[in-house]
């Protein structure tokens, strides 16, 4: 990667001036960002340098008006009045913030903790074991690499990721890494149940019957991503995750205690503080598209930090295999003369292909599909 043994000892890697060569060298090491940190790097490579964001840095540490809603799902199936209150809160959060957190969601605390521990166990395996799983072949049961958009993004993010697709290529237990296979299967199963409940509530919040979004196959697919953000020696120069909105119908995120997730609200970055036992829920681009902008898919980012590793687990709900070529456009029941369609129809496959080609470049994918 253009560095010598002396550079390695000093923790200062000399990257080639040829960007593509540097990207290939980084990729071929198969060690990710964690590999750089493990070598004792003191200066981050220019591949990871991000330009300053035009929006103000946080935020809301002292501003109680700007707090992401926390919604308690307790008694949702027992008390009709409570259910209506919850639906009302979800509706307001989805229309204004595009984000909310849920507590009493039915997933036990020990499962949440084991899922975070499972991500740590995976990324802190021996490097030679991990290298065997490093790939950009999306058909593999588990895909481990650093920066899915390595060759298309303007600047790399300070994180490594594994991806497990529970829909297109549903994994068998034996196909998953021993260090986290059991918890991956359990957490994935529990998330599918929670996703069904959330889509019912979102359907009712739109004034539709509870099965409407489910019948559109919005929650048939589930991609689980385990993110590992190592401590960064120069966090002000890079990002954990670039500003983006999610290419899903809905995302459910488990984050650890470190924090760093921020939402863009009224042109200011607002912290999404970690809440013990809570899960973060956010509207994805495709839900904004089919609700014709009623629900908002909001841009968000993750700051790099000199503390780490930060762990998060994101579950993206998307179309399943049988709905991959289905056309998705604004829901007819939500349209009127005063509210005509704002987006053209697209298949989930075409949407994802465009997203992957574009990468996380800081611009909205939805603009491409506007009428």
Automatic annotation (TrEMBL):
InterPro entries reported in the protein's UniProt record: DIOX_N (IPR026992), IPNS-like_FE2OG_OXY (IPR044861), IPNS-like_sf (IPR027443), Oxoglu/Fe-dep_dioxygenase_dom (IPR005123)
All residue ranges annotated as the Fe2OG dioxygenase domain in the record: 220-320
One Gene Ontology molecular-function label: metal ion binding
One Pfam family linked to the record: 2OG-FeII_Oxy
Keywords: Iron, Metal-binding, Oxidoreductase
Coiled-coil blocks: none
Needed cofactors: Fe cation
4Fe-4S recorded as keyword: no
Gene3D superfamilies, per database record: B-lactam Antibiotic, Isopenicillin N Synthase, Chain
Record-stated family: Belongs to the iron/ascorbate-dependent oxidoreductase family.
Protein name: Fe2OG dioxygenase domain-containing protein
